[in-house]
Amino acid sequence: MDSNGAGSVQYNRWNESNINMNVEASQSTMMRIYNTACTGNTGVIVKTAGALAALVSIYIIGYVTGYYVHRCS
Hints:
By secondary structure, this protein is an all-alpha fold. The protein is 59% helix and 0% strand.
């Protein structure tokens, strides 16, 4: 196990003072919002609501456009 050949790997000990276990404090505000709103069950709900809102808005735009195009004058 103590070979110093070309294929050997050297493991260094961790410096305990350099390990940052407080991940939330080190993240930016945008990354915290992304992690909250775009991942997990909340992310599925947000994406579903966004897709539904896009579908409804396209439907309304098509309805209004069709009304003015096919209006009898």
